[in-house]
Amino acid sequence: MKRKLIIGHVAVVFSVALSLIEGNGNARPATTIAPAADVIDLKNLDQLKEAFQHDRGAVRLISLLSPV
Question: Taking the CB of residue 54, how many other CB atoms lie within 10 A of it?
Fold first, then answer.
């Protein structure tokens, strides 16, 4: 039982030590943040269709909000 506990502690210490080593090959440079999208107040469904056709291939989000 004590041996398993010691092995567990050694494994934790070893993994923490590996994560603190400088020059880690897994590190990636920070990416730039894309500018925020404009909010569009739609008056009819044709405006929504036109916006979807214009932004084909891009990630799009539709939020339906209700005052209730």
Answer: 8
pLDDT tens digits, 17-30: 766 665 555 666 66
Number of alpha carbons in the 13 Å side-chain half-sphere of residue 35: 3
Q: What is the pTM of this model?
A: 0.31
Phi then psi for 45, rounded to 5 degrees? Answer: -70, -30
Instruction: Look up residue 62 and give its two tokens.
Output: 């539709």
Closest CA to 42 of 20, 60, 15: 60
Which two three-digit tokens encode residue 18? 């590996």
* CA–CA separation, 51 and 65 (whole Å): 18
Distance CA 27, CA 21 (A): 11
